[in-house]
Recover the amino acids of this structure.
């Protein structure tokens, strides 16, 4: 059973998402919160698999709530998915940097919404390759100041190559084709890189790859 926490300051929005989720046999809404502070408290209380968090809320917003959840080791199993009205707006990249696993636009089709919740709960491909490419297109033209990260030195050459390809939006199968290795080996490289870089998921790898200068805008 997939346990979901809804965090949104608009009761009508929460009700709509709950109505979609409650009819699914494999999904259970365990709690609802009207702001980020309450959302973090309920995440600690219920330890959901997925926290759907609105990005803009009064008081503690979605970015700050995500930051609190990502910083708490006890909440490591919680995958935060940001909800936004505007798609790839200026706040989404900051939310990913704070530790969000991905994001959904609120006008998403119901079937796509349910699929995304299940994908997030599995903990794999939390940012679909197409979304990763859009993220890159939107933000790498104005990247944050490059920082040096000594953790990159711990990566093998193959792991660095795999991270760079993740940052370009490739799936594990596409990475395998590019590196001429098996999909399982590609997944192993990515997972080991996430462990060494203390990245929660692929979204974090994308952010780290650009922030550390491992890849640069326009590179391929």
């Amino acid at each position: 059973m997939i346990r979901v926490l809804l965090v949104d300051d608009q009761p009508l929005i929460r009700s709509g998402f709950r109505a979609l989720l409650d009819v699914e046999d494999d999904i259970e809404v365990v709690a609802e919160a009207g702001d980020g502070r309450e959302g973090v408290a309920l995440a600690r209380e219920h330890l959901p698999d997925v926290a759907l968090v609105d990005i803009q809320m009064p008081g503690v917003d979605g970015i700050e709530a995500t930051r609190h959840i990502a910083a708490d080791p006890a909440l490591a199993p919680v995958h935060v998915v940001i909800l936004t009205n505007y798609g790839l707006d200026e706040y989404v990249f900051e939310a990913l940097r704070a530790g969000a696993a991905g994001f959904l636009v609120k006008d998403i089709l119901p079937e796509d919404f349910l699929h995304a919740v299940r994908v997030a709960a599995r903990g794999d491909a939390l940012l679909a390759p197409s979304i990763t490419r859009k993220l890159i297109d939107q933000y790498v033209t104005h990247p944050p100041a490059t920082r040096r990260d000594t953790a990159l030195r711990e990566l093998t050459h193959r792991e660095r190559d795999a991270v760079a390809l993740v940052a370009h939006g490739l799936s594990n199968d596409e990475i395998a084709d590019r590196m001429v290795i098996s999909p399982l080996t590609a997944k192993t490289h990515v997972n080991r890189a996430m462990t060494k870089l203390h990245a929660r998921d692929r979204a974090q790898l994308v952010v780290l790859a650009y922030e550390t200068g491992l890849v640069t805008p326009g590179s391929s």
Strands lie at 2-7, 27-33, 50-54, 79-84, 102-105.
